[in-house]
Write a structure and sequence with these properties.
By secondary structure, the protein is of the alpha/beta class. Helix content is 31%, strand content 11%.
Length: 211
Amino acid sequence: MLHGLGDTKESFAKLARQMQLPETVCISVQGPQPLPFGLGGFAWGDDFTFSESSGTMDYDTGFENSNRLIKEEIIEKALMQSCGYKSRNILLFGFGQGGMAAVASTLAFKTELGGVVSIGGPQPSSISSHSDGTSKNTTAIIVLGGSSDTLIHQSALTHLKKSFNHVEYVKWSRSGDSMPRSVEEMTPIMKFFARRLQSRRGIPDDATELG
């Protein structure tokens, strides 16, 4: 679970407990870069730049450091090599810049992961899509965002659909890309988890995976 820009791992650790996902271990990871100027909180981007128009921090500032942390240190070394997890049993959940980091790390991974949930986090501009439709990533992804004042606009969706085989988009009936505010907004995420999580009790031989 990957928090948003300027946040810490504690908020998503609380969210993990609230979701109560069955047979699932949730790990809330903290961004590798502390914010400058004593602002507190952490970031997933490689650099800190500010928008000239709004004065706010830019989200899309490169993700090489977070890729090393998420893909290499956590997924490959800790979860797969040390703990014996299969890649298909690992899902990423990210908000804002954390969602972008989740997308970036998944696209750097060559095998299918269990899934990606990205709230307000599009594909980073530094990662090119396959315009000819070949070599798409097979990991299923759900992206969610507001009906306006959102980073999940049409061009962002087009970018994602050129990179992933399975893209589900949920547009909320409000502006902004903040975290879900109601059961209605959280339901698509929980349904995605229900489809993608695999029980430790095993899957029947004649079962068919959907989504």
